[in-house]
Amino acid sequence: MTMAKRDTYTPESLLAVAVEVFNERGYDGTSMEHLSKAAGISKSSIYHHVKGKEELLRLAISRALDGLFAVLDEPEATGGRAVDRLQYVTRRTVEVLMAELPYVTLLLRVRGNTDTERWAMERRREFDHRVADLLKQAAADGDLRADVDARLATRLLFGMINSVVEWYRPGHGGAATSEEVADAVVLTAFAGLRTPGRD
Amino acid sequence: MTMAKRDTYTPESLLAVAVEVFNERGYDGTSMEHLSKAAGISKSSIYHHVKGKEELLRLAISRALDGLFAVLDEPEATGGRAVDRLQYVTRRTVEVLMAELPYVTLLLRVRGNTDTERWAMERRREFDHRVADLLKQAAADGDLRADVDARLATRLLFGMINSVVEWYRPGHGGAATSEEVADAVVLTAFAGLRTPGRD
C-alpha cells in the first residue's frame, strides 16, 4: 500500500498529475482511485480541491482551449491578408500545442460521453471552423492554390499540426525546439498551399 | 439474448466484423464475448475459424501491412529519382490507407501489450523507415528544401497522410474521392517539400 503524502498540491500541480493519468489511461478508464494513487493523496483530499474527475477534465481542457483561442485574438491574427493571418495562426497553434502538450493532447483525444467531453469537442470544432474560415478567405483572395479544395486543405493542415502530439517529447536529447517544429510545419504547409510566386 | 445465426462466415467476412469491433472498443477492450455478439455467432463458432482474438488481430494487421509494403515494390517506387519515388509512395500510401481504411486504422492505433501488437509496431516502424530513407535520399539529391530537417519532414508527411483515417468516411455524401484526397496530400506536401523551381 502506498503511504499517503501530505497534501501540498496547488490546483495547477494536481491538474498536471490528473492530465498525465487521463492521457495514459484514457479519461473513461480513469477512476478517482487511479487519481488518488498517482497523486499519492487520499480521494477525500482530492475532493477538497475539486468536485470530481469531470471538473479536472474541464479545467484541463479549458487550459488547452484558452491557449488556442487566445491565438486568434493576437494582432497578427486579426489584421492583414488572410493568408498571412492563417500562417501566423498555424505557427502559434503549433507553439501552444508544444507549450501545453499534455493539455492539448487530452483535448485532441476526448470523445464525447459526458457533458464536459461534448463541450470540449464542440469548442474544438469551433476553433477548427475559425481557422477554416481564414483558409477559405485566403483561397478567395487567390493566395492559396486553387487545385486543393479548401475543406481538404483545412483537414490536412490540422492533420499535420495535430500529429505533433504523437511524437514531440520535450527535453529529449536531439529533440527539435518548438521554433524548429513550428518553422517546419509552416514551411511544409505553406510553400505547398500558397499559389506559387505569390508568397 | 441475441439469437445466434448460422455461421456462414468466410475468414474475410469474420475479419471485417472483428476489425470493426477492435476499432470501436480498442483491441485491449475487446473480449471474445464482444466478438461473438457482434458477429451473431457463438464463441465456439469463432474458435472454429481462428485460435482467438490475437489471431484476428494478426490477420487484420497483415492485411494492412501487405498493402503498404506492396507499394514499395511497385516499379514507380523502385526506379527513378528519389523525390519522384517518394511522391509516388506518398500517393499510393494514401490510396491503400483509404482502400483498407479499417485495417490501416487498426494498425495505426495498436500499442504494444502482446507479441502481435509489438510485431505490428515493429513492422510499421520498418515501413516508416523505408519511406524516411527515400526522403533522406531525395534531400541528399537536393530535390527537397534544405531548411526543413529530414526527420521532421518525415514526421509531418506521415502526420498528414495518417490523419486521413481520422476523418475519411467512404460513401458519405460529398465525401472526396480517394484520388482527390491523394492529389491533395501530394500537392500540399510536395509543393512544400520540393526545392522551389525544381519540380
Automatic annotation (TrEMBL), chains A, B:
Cite a single Pfam family from the UniProt record. Answer: TetR_C_24
Alphabetized InterPro entries for the sequence: Homeodomain-like_sf, HTH-type_TetR-like_transc_reg, HTH_TetR, KstR2_TetR_C, Tet_transcr_reg_TetR-rel_C_sf
Gene3D superfamilies the record matches = Homeodomain-like, Tetracycline Repressor, domain 2
Molecular function (GO) terms listed? Answer: DNA-binding transcription factor activity; transcription cis-regulatory region binding
Q: Which UniProt keywords apply?
A: DNA-binding, Transcription, Transcription regulation
Residue spans binding DNA: 31-50
The HTH tetR-type domain is annotated at 8-68
Q: Which residues form a coiled coil?
A: none
Query: What is this protein identified as?
Result: TetR/AcrR family transcriptional regulator
